[in-house]
Specification:
Keywords: Kinase, Membrane, Phosphoprotein, Transferase, Transmembrane, Transmembrane helix, Two-component regulatory system. It is an enzyme of class 2 (transferase). By secondary structure, the protein is an alpha+beta fold. The chain has four domains: 89 residues; 105 residues, Beta-Lactamase; 101 residues, Orthogonal Bundle (Helix Hairpins); 147 residues, 2-Layer Sandwich (Heat Shock Protein 90). Helix content is 53%, strand content 16%. The protein has eleven helices and twelve strands. It is rod-shaped and about 160 Å long. The mean pLDDT is 78.
Length: 489
């Protein structure tokens, strides 16, 4: 039952808006605080009033018992309490044998077991509250007393005449009850006003505090509707302002990603257009030549070789674009890889494509965590780049090496140095950008994505790549990767 009630309340609260929940929370918090304070004040005042009444009644009863004025039968029978200044009090005596004597012209106070116990000297004092149904409400005090049964007014009893008993006084609690009743009404009124004021204040605070959140929600809806990634203005330094700053950071990241996608699409379209145009031109020439009787075998073969080369370039370009378009933040399916094996496999491929180069290779084992396919692509691109620029454009090969590529792998640092012309100082900051091609590279085959993939692979594996011109040689590329023992899986 309790669980069902709690689930019902949780369901109702979840349906409320944050504004309503803040207002409700403020009202409930103040309501509980007012309730606790009111209860504490009510109980404290009530206890203090009863304590003061008990002290007053006890002192007056003890004094009357000591003076033996009200414990004389003649006095009780003939002198009314009003004559003694006790008009608001009921006075009586209960004897050890249970006999009860009341004051003149007044009803006796309620006398029961507690008062009888005092009369029999079982208790020193008795304090209790007595309430009649639909009637009076009394506070009753009983103190030990010596009762004088003499009927002569003013006659002093001897010790032998005194009988043990208890003097019982009872005072109506009507004034205290009325005071507490009025106090309860005031506390309820003040509490209700406090809750209403807290709800109004909570509503105002929620409206003011959640205004930035409303702007943030509006901005998110605007972005979803228009795809406009403009940041929203931020005022202040509270939690919502920090949330807005984080939202702006997310928008900036989305804008950068969107910009990269647009540049990638635009550059890809431009790069794809060149091989496609060349292939179409060659196929048109082949078709026209076939209509006129065909080309000579050598010319036809040269044309087909050109088409095949353009197809290879197009295939490589599409593969590079696919790799870069993933733009994943990290390697998800990492495995333990021996980097030296990756370099050796890449060397086998590139040597087959560049047989007229001399290769100076020194490789040491080095384990890393990562994606073997992506690392293999990156190392192959580095070696292909070095092989391409190590061969002069006008070189004629007769089985004699025309260039040198130096490859070193030591302590996770792969260094590839070619024997080409090097990299111009103006081009060094841009060699790893997508589709960037220097003036020397534009006359050579390639898409401008190879080194961008190398940088992408290095960043994915927590490494670095940088380029420089080696002294006395060509361009030198250095790829550093962390050891497997220092990488997190």
């Amino acid at each position: 039952m309790v669980a069902n009630t709690q689930s019902w309340w949780q369901e109702k609260l979840h349906k409320l808006s944050l504004h309503s929940r803040v207002t409700l929370l403020a009202a409930v918090a103040v309501g509980l605080a007012v309730a606790f304070v009111s209860i504490a004040a009510y109980v404290s005042v009530r206890q203090q009033m009863y304590q003061n009444l008990d002290e007053s009644l006890t002192n007056r009863a003890a004094q009357a018992a000591q003076n033996k004025v009200l414990t004389n039968q003649a006095n009780l029978a003939q002198i009314s309490p009003e004559a003694l200044g006790l008009s608001d009090i009921l006075v009586g005596v209960i004897l050890a044998d249970g006999e009860q004597i009341g004051a003149a012209n007044s009803k006796p106070p309620p006398m029961e077991e507690p008062e009888f116990a005092v009369a029999q000297s079982q208790n020193q004092i008795s304090k209790r509250t007595f309430g009649e149904s639909m009637g009076a409400h009394y506070r009753i005090i009983a103190v030990p007393a010596q009762y004088c049964p003499q009927l002569d007014l003013g006659h002093r009893c001897s010790d032998e005449d005194l009988e043990p008993g208890a003097l019982v006084v009872a005072q109506s609690l009507r004034p205290i009850d009325q005071t507490l009743h009025n106090m309860g009404i005031v506390l309820w009124a003040v509490g209700l006003l406090g809750v209403i004021g807290a709800a109004i204040a909570g509503n105002a605070i929620a409206a003011s505090g959640l205004r930035p959140l409303a702007r943030l929600s509006g901005a998110a809806e605007h972005v979803a509707r228009t795809e406009d990634l403009q940041p929203i203005p931020v005022d202040g330094s509270d939690e919502i302002s920090r949330l807005a700053i984080s939202f702006n950071s997310m928008l900036a990241a989305l804008a950068r990603s969107q910009d990269r996608q647009r540049r990638l699409i635009g550059d890809a379209g431009h790069e794809l257009r060149t091989p496609l145009t060349s292939i179409r031109t060659n196929l048109d020439l082949l078709a026209q030549a076939d209509k006129r009787g065909g080309l000579r075998p050598d010319d036809r073969q040269q044309l087909l070789d050109d088409v095949r080369a353009q197809m290879d370039e197009l295939t490589n370009l599409i593969g590079d674009l696919t790799e870069l378009a993933r733009d994943t933040p990290q390697i998800r399916n990492a495995e333990l890889i021996e980097l030296s094996n990756v370099v050796e496999d890449a060397l086998i491929k590139v040597r087959r494509r560049a047989p007229n180069l001399e290769w100076d290779v020194s490789i040491e084992p080095f384990p890393v965590w990562g994606d073997e396919r992506l690392l293999g692509r990156a190392v192959t691109n580095l070696l292909d780049n070095a092989a391409k620029y190590s061969v002069p454009e006008d070189a004629r090969t007769d089985g004699v090496p025309v260039g040198l590529v130096t490859v070193r792998l030591q302590d996770g640092v792969l260094t590839v140095t070619d024997s080409g012309p090097g990299i111009a100082d103006a081009d060094l900051p841009h060699v790893f950008e997508r589709f960037y091609r220097s003036s020397e590279a534009r006359s050579r085959p390639g898409s401008g994505l190879g080194l961008a993939i190398v940088k992408h692979a290095a960043e994915q594996h927590g490494g670095m790549i940088y380029a420089r011109n080696a002294p006395g040689a060509g361009a030198q590329f250095t790829l550093w990767l962390p050891h497997a023992a220092t990488q997190t899986r």
